[in-house]
Write a structure and sequence with these properties.
The chain is α/β, with parallel strands linked by helices and 216 residues long. It has two helices and 23 strands. It has a domain at 146-215.
């Protein structure tokens, strides 16, 4: 197995090769030890996210923003933990599940399938959240089916029928964002955020839009 990253002096992961949407040399989030991030698959840690203790991020899972994964938690599959979310204890987040915002998943809780836990929601104990379930707290904007609190900007799906997404103060269709993201990042002097936000956009296009349109 060829290692896909190293840990620099700041405790951040640095990509040693290209994989998924990560390019060689990209600097990611924080880990305490190599056991926190698998060298297999396309899993990665973005922004200021941190994985510590005996927690593991594997498969094609992503942890981004200011999210924290700790204890004996496992984030796997195509799961995404973002924003200020916390996953700890013996919690498991897998499949295409999303945990975002200020959500907390802990204890022996399991979030899997296409489930979404966001806002100020808490899932704990032996709770299971699966399928297309959506659990939210009180911070979701009324009328908005989905948002991610990234490391700098909120990503908000403001119109599911038209596929309109607002990032910061700009609003475009999802396809326009994906096609022009690099150009927009350069104009706004935030090229370092491109890798993180293109992941969010692709996730919304490939997973969330299909899900919310199906539910409509």
């Amino acid at each position: 197995m060829t290692k896909k990253y190293r840990i620099n002096e700041d405790g951040r992961v640095v990509a040693l090769r290209d994989f998924g949407y990560v390019k060689k040399g990209n600097i990611g989030g924080f880990i305490e030890k190599e056991g926190n991030l698998s060298h297999e698959g396309n899993s990665w840690i973005y922004g200021n996210a941190k994985v510590s203790g005996n927690a593991l991020v594997s498969g094609d899972a992503r942890v981004s923003g200011n999210a924290l994964v700790s204890g004996n938690a496992l984030v796997s599959g195509n799961a995404l933990v973002s924003g200020d979310a916390r996953v700890f204890g013996n919690a498991r987040v897998s499949g295409n599940a999303l945990v975002s915002g200020n959500a907390r998943v802990f204890g022996d809780a399991r979030v899997f399938g296409d489930a979404r836990v966001f806002g100020d929601a808490e899932v704990y104990g032996n709770a299971l959240v699966s399928g297309n379930a959506a659990i939210s707290g009180g911070t979701i904007s009324k009328g908005s089916p989905f948002y991610i609190q990234g490391s700098k900007f909120v990503v908000n799906l403001v119109n599911k029928e038209k596929g309109l997404v607002r990032i910061g103060c700009q609003e475009h269709t999802i396809e326009y964002w994906i096609k022009n993201a690099k150009k927009i990042a350069k104009i706004n002097n935030c090229v370092e955020l491109y890798d993180e936000y293109i992941e969010y956009l692709i996730f919304i296009r490939d997973k969330i839009l299909k899900l919310v349109l199906k539910e409509a």
